[in-house]
Amino acid sequence: MTSINVDKYKLSDKTARLTAKDIIPMIQSSDSAETREFLQKVSELLIDYVNIQNDRKEKILDFHHPEDMKKLLKLDVPAEAVTLQQLLKDCAITLKYQVKTGHPHFFNQLSCGLDVVSMAGEWLTATANTNMFTYEIAPVFILMENVVLTKMREIIGWNGGDSILAPGGSIANLYAFLAARHRMFPDYKEHGARALPGELVMFTSDQSHYSIKSCAAVCGLGTDNCVMVPSDENGRMIPTELERLILERKSRGQIPFFVNATAGTTVIGAFDPINAIADISEKYNCWFHIDAAWGGGLLLSKKYRHPRLSGVERADSVTWNPHKLMGALLQCSTIHFKQDGLLISCNQMSAEYLFMTDKLYDISYDTGDKVIQCGRHNDVFKLWLQWRSKGTEGFSKHMDHLMELTEHQVRRIKQQSDKFHLIMEPECTNVSFWYIPRRLRGVPHDARKEQELGKICPIIKSRMMQTGTLMVAYQPDDRRPNFFRSIISSIAVTEADVDFMLSEIDRLGQDL
Ligand code: ABU
Q1: What is the 3-state secondary structure (H, E, C) of 449-472?
Q2: pLDDT of residue 1
Q3: Is the CB of 110 under 6 A from ligand 1?
Q4: Rounded CA gap, 105 and 118, in Å?
Q5: How far is CA 417 from the centre of its chain?
Q6: Is 100 left (phi over 0), alpha (psi -120 to 50) or beta?
Q7: What is 13-100's CATH topology?
Q8: Which residue, 421, 494, 435, 441, is CA-closest to 464?
Q9: Share of the chain above pLDDT 90, in %
């Protein structure tokens, strides 16, 4: 298999000259040979792209700087319609220069990989092209949403409750915040800040996702009132610090109301101690949210769920993104509530043009009135189909496999301790490490050496992108300069791919 050949996808002479006005739905036909030919060529291109992504000899990307990339693409939106042949070429060029996030050597983001069944689900979703606000226009998908979300709540450990799919983990966390404030101060919905008896304060660890702090900015607390609780050397929130900070804020007359624990931090993959945080949240009457956007997939694993997620059922709300560890296609984010009825009571606006109360069916299935958005993308079908393709048992094994590959990576890093420095034992599939170039091997590990190792990360990353062979993220954190963070969330990855990651970093970085 060779890379996408933009000239491969040729329509017949007759169809090539046509434009969108000559195919369905512009022509009144229920079967048009030209429409079928066009769509078959598009499908052929998409299938070629899937195959190419899984060819380990293929590059992950063909990098160009933005100004050069602009010259390679036809980005203008023209005054006149272009031909179907040109549209096909546009599609091919787009995929030619797209980063192949499903390539087994793409270890760069929390969401890596391309699950073909989930992708087929997304194709169907695009074809059905419906909005998820009412049962009226999405009956099958609404019922699927109900089944999948109920199953996820059961896996968390709840009977009943309520859930919704959200456009990303950050918005899922925002839903938790809104429900928490609504439960404590139901008049806020009508009266706004006048309904509050004082300043609300929320707590999260200094390793948590920035969306938690964003809730404080967006919802009127101000980021000063999102208290960052210190974490330990493994990136886990320190419960005694949480309690100390709650008491400190109470002594200032503020109102602690929301505590977030993270199950799988973005960079390190740390799991906060859920039970200890739940005890403190209960003691101070705070809503207890768990941001398990990343680590939530391990709820499915019998082997790795405990102790990481022990006590998860004590939370009031849980964010869990199947598009991360579970490999559902982007995007697929869920938020779950232990208490039923809060979502609708908090967010319902009863728009009369959508949510009429005199419809012919049970209007509790009109889930659109539970959310702050109006339109909602169908993110459930791809997950439902994927889940059926594996079964819950299969998903459990899938999670174990990702964790076992991570253990393999850690073993290989330790075996090559002259070349790699493991920063900490991972709890999730994030592996934090430095590459040690020849000149620094044998030099004692201290802060000065870390500074040198940190300078090497962006150089190796730029080489990865220019050669196109590998993608692994790097970043600094508040304790150390730049370091690599690799992620295994693609089911395509094998032990040989993990070995390749390390040997390729070594190849790219030897001379540094
Ligand atoms: N929402 C966090 C995603 C970060 C990452 O993919 O690396």
Answers
A1: HHHHHHHHHHHHHHHHHHHCCCEE
A2: 54
A3: yes
A4: 20
A5: 32
A6: beta
A7: Aspartate Aminotransferase, domain 1 (3.90.1150)
A8: 435
A9: 98
End-to-end Cα distance, the chain? 34
Please give the distance, rounded to the nearest whole angstrom, from the Cα atom of residue 137 to the centre of ligand 1: 33
The angle, 0 to 180 degrees and rounded to 10, between the axes of the packed helices 274-283 and 239-251 is 20
Number of other residues whose CB lies within 10 A of the CB of residue 124: 13
Task: HSE, CB side, 13 Å, CA atoms: give it for residue 26.
Answer: 8
Q: Is the pLDDT of residue 3 over 90?
A: no
Coil, strand or helix at 165: strand
- Helix and strand numbers, DSSP H then E, in the chain: 15, 12
Strands (E), 282-384: 287-292, 317-320, 333-337
Residue 74, Cβ density class (10 Å: 0-12 exposed, 13-18 middle, ≥19 buried): exposed
Using CA atoms, how far residue 228 sits from 24, 199, 202, 244, 295, in Å, is 55, 17, 9, 12, 20
CA of 167 to the centre of ligand 1 (A): 14
Beta carbon of 509 within 6 Å of any ligand 1 atom: no
Is pTM, for the whole model, over 0.85? yes
Q: What tens digit of pLDDT does each residue of 362-391 get?
A: 999 999 999 999 999 999 999 999 999 999
Asked if residues 71 and 109 have their Cβ atoms less than 8 Å apart, the reply is: no
Per-residue DSSP letter, 359:
-
Q: How far apart are CA 389 and CA 86, in angstroms?
A: 36
* Residue of 111, 173, 428 to test ligand 1 pocket, by largest number of atoms within 8 Å of CB: 111
Rounded distance, CA 203 to CA 474, Å? 27
Residue 170 CA: nearest ligand 1 atom is: 1
Q: Looking at residue 428, what DSSP letter applies?
A: S
In residues, how long is the chain? Answer: 512
- The closest residue, in CA terms, to atom 3 on ligand 1 is 110
Distances (CA, A) of 82 to 4, 45, 70: 21, 19, 19
List the one residue out of 1, 109, 115, 99 whose CA is nearest residue 57: 1
Q: Round to whole Å and give the CA distance between 128 and 137.
A: 10
φ/ψ (deg, to 5) at 279: -60, -45
238-246 contacts, C-beta under 8 A, 24 or more apart: 239/273, 239/276, 239/277, 239/279, 239/280, 242/203, 242/277, 242/280, 243/280, 243/283, 243/284, 245/203, 246/203, 246/280, 246/284, 246/286
Q: Whose CA is nearest to atom 1 of ligand 1?
A: 169
How far apart are the CA of 112 and the centre of ligand 1, in A? Answer: 10
Cβ-based neighbour number of residue 21 at 10 Å: 8
Report the separation in Å between the CA atom of 169 and the middle of ligand 1, taken as the mean of its atom positions.
10
When pLDDT is averaged across residues 75-79 and rounded to a whole number, the result is 96
Is residue 169 in contact with ligand 1, taking CB distance under 6 Å? yes
